[in-house]
Amino acid sequence: MQDNDKIISYHEMVAIEKMALQRGMVFSDGKRKYSILLMSQRKDAMYNDDFDENGNLIYEGHNAKAENGIDQKKIDQPLETSSGKWTENGKFYKAAMDFKSDIRMIPELVKVYEKIDSGVWSTKGFFKLIDVKQISDGKRNVFKFYLKPVITKIFNRTEDLPFNRLIPTSVKVKVWERDRGKCVLCGAIENLHYDHELPYAKGGTSLTEKNIRILCAKCNLSKSDKIMMLVC
């Protein structure tokens, strides 16, 4: 079962993944069933993460380490370290290329978190890594990883997730600021989720902040119970 659009702190995110997420890209070590990407579309974001018209995540690779006085934004994003080992860019690049060339039949499963505010994150859900390109940004070459949103189900099955089901990061940021980071019904500041005021199944949209609000788990459950009573 997925828990998309849950609002969590950085420390909660670390506890969920059982690792210190100091890097924005963490490729699976084989013990974990998925890789991890941390994204941001905030104005102060270091990288240019975006979504295309089909809802696919376009995730920008990461710069070389800041060492020896180099300007990270003037050199190509690296595939390998100075010792010849794969960087995280390289690991994701190889996985994408192996899938494109049919060396691997199943694409890499990636869990994505998005930054909402300082110390505040939201679960974006699971994606499958389907493509990668190296492009010029006018100054140097950067990697662009293409990921398609999916619904994860039991027995590790996945299904494509319709792009209009995803709440855009820009909408989440606006709603966070508007609702002041608390449940709009009871004022709680813990166990928060982004909620569709008019459910998607009833014609509600994810694409405007007018239909999105912040609810705590208790109020969200109460809303679900009321909907079930109306249906029954």
Describe this structure in words.
The protein is of the alpha+beta class. The protein folds into 2 domains: 6-162, Roll (PUA domain-like); 172-231, no CATH class. It has 4 helices and 11 strands. It has helices at 10-17, 88-100, 169-178, 217-231, and strands spanning 6-9, 25-26, 35-39, 50-51, 57-60, 109-117, 120-136, 141-152, 158-160, 192-196, 212-216. Strands 1, 2, 3, 4, 5, 6, 7, 8, 9, 10 and 11 form an 11-stranded mixed beta sheet that branches. A hairpin with a 4-residue loop joins strand 7 and strand 8. It starts with 5 loop residues before the first strand and ends with a helix. Mean pLDDT is 89; it is low at 227-232.
Please identify the top-level CATH class of the largest domain. Mainly Beta
Query: Averaged pLDDT, please?
Result: 89
Order of helices and strands: EHEEEEHEEEEHEEH
- SS summary, helix count: 4
CATH superfamily of the largest domain: SRA-YDG
**Low-pLDDT sequence parts:** 227-232
CATH architectural designation of the largest domain = Roll
Q: Tell me, briefly, the overall form.
A: globular
Number of extended strands: 11
Return Rg in Å.
19 Å
Structural class: alpha+beta
Give the amount of beta strand, in percent: 25-35%
N-C termini distance: 24 Å
Q: Report helical residue fraction.
A: 10-25%
Let me know the largest β-sheet: 11 strands, mixed
CATH domain topology of the largest domain? PUA domain-like
What is the domain total for the residues? 2
